[in-house]
Specification:
mainly beta; globular; 4-stranded antiparallel sheet
Length: 127
């Protein structure tokens, strides 16, 4: 129903700024609650942040709250994740996810709630 494509990953140094993008196509972007998940080597996929359909409400995992910012530009069908200080612990594959929902609660942190996923973009943080 919607195609998602992440970009912006790569090799960065600890303390650098990082901005990831997720471009959506094939669907009506404003119908979707959007989120970022990440998966580090040898670990389970974990929730990072979510943003409501209009972008007015955000929800962050405790591990990134205050350091990461999630946003969306509905006119450009794009979601973003950015930080001014990336850390070695942020090394992971980052995935864009979408779900159609009219609610906004803590269930948005569950990967099983999202039927649409991008293929991921790899972020490697060197120290």
């Amino acid at each position: 129903q919607v195609n998602l494509l992440e970009s912006g990953g790569g090799l960065v140094q600890a303390g650098d700024s990082l901005r990831l993008s997720c471009a959506a196509s094939g669907g009506t972007f404003t119908l979707y609650l959007m989120a970022w998940f990440r998966q580090a080597p040898g670990k389970e996929r974990e929730f990072v942040a979510a943003v409501s359909r209009r972008g007015g409400t955000t929800y962050y995992a405790d591990s990134v709250k205050g350091r990461f910012i999630i946003s969306r530009d509905n006119a450009q069908n794009t979601m973003f994740l950015q930080t001014n200080k990336v850390l070695p612990g942020d090394t992971a594959d980052y995935f864009c996810a979408a779900q159609q929902t009219s609610t906004y609660d803590t269930s948005m942190a569950q990967a099983s709630q999202y039927p649409y996923w991008g293929q991921g973009t790899q972020v490697t943080v060197s120290s």
